[in-house]
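An example makes the point: we print one protein in full, the chain in one-letter code, the fold tokenised, without further comment:
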Amino acid sequence: MDIQFTEEQELLRSSVQRLLRDQYDFDARRKIVANEEGFSRKQWAAFAELGLLAAPFGEEVGGLGGGPLSTMIIMQEFGRHLVVEPFVETVVVAGGLIEQAGSDAQKQALIPEIVAGTRLWALAWTEKGSRFDLATVTTTAKRDGDEYVLTGEKTAVLAAPWADHLIVSARTSGHRHDRGGVSLFVVDRRAANLDLQSFKTIDGRRAAELKLRGVRGQLLGREGEGVAALESCRDRAIGALCAEAIGAIGELNSATLEYSKTRKQFGTTIGSFQVLQHRMVDMFIAHQEALSLMQHLSLSLSGADAGVSRLASGAKSKIGYSGKFVADQAVQLHGGMGMTDELNVGHYFKRISSINIQFGDPAYHVLRFAQLEAAA
């Protein structure tokens, strides 16, 4: 599959490429990750000024109406440059949930702040022992007037240390594994009785463990409909993460090919060895197969196809395994250099490894694909 982009989409892609080429090379990225905060507010403001934060949203809420295809274009370039800023967490996940499930008042109040780059968001849905199941929720929410009081714990909440607001899944009725009874709540990250313990992830980003001890939150959408909203959100997030992975895989292939043309062993470049040529051909094929599947998923997300969840799981598993294969080969073919912090290859390896476990690892999505296929 080869998507033919419109003039506006080509302009978006070239704009993102130019910005990242000029301001986000590997050395600049290393400095951003190493600073105390772990990301660049200056770069986030530049993304907002360029319209990247507005691109996926509908025009009725102040966006540019680009939808999943705009997200795909942006994330593929972000993957090439290992961008750490929380575009997926703030725009795709939280912003998408607000646009999908929020009231008109919530959309008009919250989405313009995301578009302007003045507020960062994170989604807190994972709990210990939940194993990627959106319905496995023990955090509870009790109604108290116009608000709710949340009690429980969330684990590995990506971008939470950077966020101004959180969207938290909590149970308003039912038992731990019930699909019904899960609701979504907007919580101020600095709210009273919210304990946040931040940590650095293997790919240089920030995440946190959350403890909510009677934290006040505002209901997002309708009570008890959180799982359905999260499932749609997961499909969109998978589309974005797959695009990011494709960008990273492409860079690994390019870096490995260039290295094979210069690295000499036994008096000749390693790229002349037939066995390594075969391996790099396998890497190229893996990238092309994954690219086609990612584009197919993005088009399906744009058209809101009925089988998009099944396709999302298929893409997440296939691209996950392809990414791991290419990353493994790239590190090995670079030899000892592939393990050093100074070379970008190891950083791409770590990012692909992190993408593989976000919203479900490849093994989980193979099983989910089979279940959805059987139910179709």
